[in-house]
Each structure stands twice: as C-alpha cells, then as structure tokens.
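Each record in this resource describes a single protein on a pair of labelled lines. With that in mind, the following record should read easily:

===
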Amino acid sequence: MPEDQQQRLERGSVLMLVPAGVLVLVILGAIAVDFSVAFLGQRELTNAAAAAANDASTAIAEARFYRGGNGAAGEVVIDEARAARAVDQALAARVPRGVSIDGVSVDPSGGQVCVVLRGRVDYVFARAIPGMADGAAVRGRSTATAVSGSAGSPVAHRPAC
C-alpha cells in the first residue's frame, strides 16, 4: 500500500477516541460531584449532632443538682427525657440540608450526652446510571459534656459514644 494512502486511512482514528475520552471525563466528574454531595451530607449531620448534643447537655436532672437526690447536691447528671426533647427541638430548628434523617439516638451517660444521627443523601448523577445506587447512608455523631463550677475548671473527657 502506498505511504500517502496509509496516512489517509489513519487520520480518522483519533476522532473516534475523542468521544470516549470525553465520556470518561464526564463520568469521573459525576463521581466526584456525587461523593462531594455525600461528604457534605455527612458534615451537615455531624454539625447538627453537635448542636443537638450541646443543647441536650443543658438538660440536667434538676432534682439531683439542687436537692442532691441520691448523691451530693450539685451532681451533674443528664435527664434522659429532657435531653431527648432538647435534641428534637434542636433538629427541628436546624434541619440539615440535603439529608433525610432516618434515625436519632440520644445516649446520656452521667454528665455527658452522645447524639448519633443516621440519614440518607441522594446522589445527583448516579441516579441516571442504571444499576448504580441512588444515594448513600451517612452518619453524624457528637458528644457534649455538662460542666458545673467555674468556666476555667478542667473536665475529664470520657467519650460517651
């Protein structure tokens, strides 16, 4: 085969690779956007859990704090029912964007309260690809400690969750 005829046959081969390369770049961009949405949803849940835990840490058992109850007066113990109400109010006031909350767990332990939120984030691009997941399960967790005494006193931190 003559050399100029062979060059003419090879000219169009690059044109067939360009659409495949563009498709790969679009798919990689879609994956990056969907994972960013899932990460943002997880951060939103963590922030909401931190706000709810801070509010719940103020729900101390007043009878034990003021009158002593079973222990000495001034004992800081989180009231479970009041803490759960405080978490519900905090979540109603600050709904995480783009996340549907599936479960809320409030676990008071002495002067600490642990709030765990479970939710779901919907993907943007993966929904258009057959066989791919429509979203991701995300979880946010935070612990807050109720402190008595002066603001500068050290607090021994024992993670409640």
